[in-house]
Automatic annotation (TrEMBL):
Coiled coil: 30-78
Database matches in InterPro entries: 26S_Proteasome_ATPase (IPR050221), AAA+_ATPase (IPR003593), AAA_lid_3 (IPR041569), ATPase_AAA_core (IPR003959), ATPase_AAA_CS (IPR003960), NA-bd_OB-fold (IPR012340), Nucleotidase_PAN (IPR023501), P-loop_NTPase (IPR027417)
Subunit structure: Homohexamer. The hexameric complex has a two-ring architecture resembling a top hat that caps the 20S proteasome core at one or both ends. Upon ATP-binding, the C-terminus of PAN interacts with the alpha-rings of the proteasome core by binding to the intersubunit pockets.
Domain characteristics, as noted in the entry: Consists of three main regions, an N-terminal coiled-coil domain that may assist in substrate recognition, an interdomain involved in PAN hexamerization, and a C-terminal ATPase domain of the AAA type.
Gene behind this protein: ftsH_1
PROSITE patterns: AAA
Domain of life: Archaea
Residues reported in the UniProt entry to bind ATP: G210, T211, G212, K213, T214, L215, H350
Residue ranges constituting the AAA+ ATPase domain according to the UniProt record: 199-339
Chief location bin: cytoplasm
Family note: Belongs to the AAA ATPase family.
Name used for this protein in its record: Proteasome-activating nucleotidase
Keyword Nucleotide-binding attributed: yes
């Protein structure tokens, strides 16, 4: 207030110096000015007061802002900690409203979960989507991009195996049947249309162990340009309810998307064994469910669709009847133990790179290996090579083969357990 210039003083001094010549009207003017002055001063005071108040308010707001900033940082940190692993994976079953969803955790139970407000995008928030949930609160904190389970993704064979049809001894008929049923429909579907028959959808290979079933499937994978998906039946047996069926569904979905495709299910008896009506364990139920999904998938795809299926088993007798009916596996191919001719070819294949003496007669060995399967014949060849190495020789002779034969044969019978004599006496 004190620094306000006194606008009255010069006027008043001028007033004092002059005499009574000042007219009444001037005096009135003076009074009005004084009044204005007072008003202005009080206005000035008011404004200053306002400025002070605003400054105070500003300081308060600034301190509040800082406080909020700190709070935001704290919340962000907390949010990050929610997002940081380990998170529980689950599947959205239904979305109730903006903030709530029913989620089935992969560990089994269902939850009514809160949906985090900080989801980067709610686009994928649909039933069936995979989501990540906080470990304790089970709040949905993230939606996983729609892709197949890593396990399914890994089943696709990207590097073709090195096995070719020429590496398989004998089995000419089997090779022919498989190529006709799998390769031909993929390569020339028109042929089947012209003839007016539905191309086979799949084949089932069965036979004793070591007779070349997996080997032939590898050769198909080597020769085909189609996507080759390899799965072992036991991989589809899962711990949690519905997981096996989901894998089967995703497997075929992936095959359809990447068609032309061949799905090879090795050791299919792991899930394809006859369903038991008295399945009393949860595990049996789960395997049954997985099989049902497989049956549905086999029916599901369009006949001329480009997805073919190859199954392999050595227990075709225990497979479920539904799996064996025509229309699921159209052709059932038996892989018998090789005959003498077949055994000779298999021996030739496995000794192709070996340094054999001229005197070695593979025909003779083939004659002596009655009842042996392909893998045992391979073992005989490897063992013969080892016998030569033991003698520090690089050439393999007939005697090496004779010894190898004896040891492989004894190996087959040698696994019979010795009966303990004195255990119960
Ligand atoms: N016809 C064959 N020609 C050449 N090698 C063979 C033949 N059959 C089997 N073998 C040899 O035996 C090995 C095992 O064969 P493969 O894995 O195909 O048996 P499998 O029929 O699938 O047996 P399993 O039913 O036990 O799975 C092959 O890696 C191969 O070295
Ligand atoms: Mg096999």
């Amino acid at each position: 207030m004190s620094e306000t210039p006194d606008i009255v003083s010069p006027l008043s001094s001028g007033q004092n110096a002059a005499d009574n010549r000042i007219s009444l009207s001037e005096e009135g003017e003076l009074a009005a000015l004084r009044k204005t002055n007072v008003a202005l001063e009080s206005r000035n005071y008011e404004l200053r007061e306002q400025v002070r108040q605003l400054r105070l308010q500003n300081a308060a707001a600034e301190s509040q802002r800082d406080q909020h900033k700190r709070e935001i940082k704290k919340l962000r940190d907390e949010l990050d900690s929610y997002r940081s692993p380990p998170l529980v994976l689950g599947t959205i079953e239904s979305v109730l409203d903006e903030n709530h969803a029913v989620v089935r955790s992969t560990t089994g139970p269902q939850f009514l979960s809160r949906i985090s407000e900080h989801l980067t995008s709610t686009k994928g928030l649909v039933p069936g989507a995979q989501c990540a949930m906080h470990l304790q609160s089970f709040t949905v904190v993230d939606i996983l991009p729609p892709r197949y389970d890593m396990q399914v993704e890994a089943m696709e064979i990207l590097d073709a195996p090195l096995v070719t049809y020429d590496d398989i001894g004998g089995l000419d008929e089997q090779k022919q049947l498989l190529r006709e049923s799998i390769e031909l429909p993929l390569k020339s579907p028109r042929l089947f249309e012209a003839v007016g028959i539905e191309p086979p959808k799949g084949v089932l290979m069965f036979g004793p162990p070591g007779t070349g079933k997996t080997l032939l499937a590898k050769a198909v994978a080597h020769h085909t340009k189609a996507t080759f998906i390899h799965v072992v039946g036991s991989e589809l047996v899962q711990k949690y309810i519905g997981e096996g069926a989901r894998l089967v569904r995703e497997l075929f979905q992936m095959a359809r998307e990447r068609a032309p495709a061949i799905v090879f299910i090795d050791e299919i008896d792991a899930i394809g064994a006859s369903r038991t009506h008295d399945a009393y364990s949860a595990g049996d139920h789960e395997v049954n469910r997985t099989l049902m999904q497989l049956l549905a998938e086999l029916d599901g795809f369009d006949n001329r669709g480009d997805v073919k299926i190859i199954g392999a088993t050595n227990r075709h007798d225990i497979l479920d009847k539904a799996l064996l009916r025509p229309g699921r596996f159209d052709r059932i191919i038996e892989f018998p133990l090789p005959d003498a001719k077949g055994r000779k070819v298999i021996l030739e294949i496995h000794t192709k790179k070996m340094n054999l003496r001229k005197t070695v007669s593979l025909e003779e060995i083939a004659g002596q290996t009655e009842g042996m399967n392909g893998s045992e014949l391979m073992a005989v060849c490897v063992e013969a090579g080892m016998n030569a190495i033991r003698k520090r020789r690089t050439m393999i002779n007939q005697e090496d083969f004779a010894k190898a034969l004896a040891s492989v044969k004894s190996g087959r019978t040698g696994i019979v357990m010795q009966q303990p004599d004195a255990m119960y006496s």
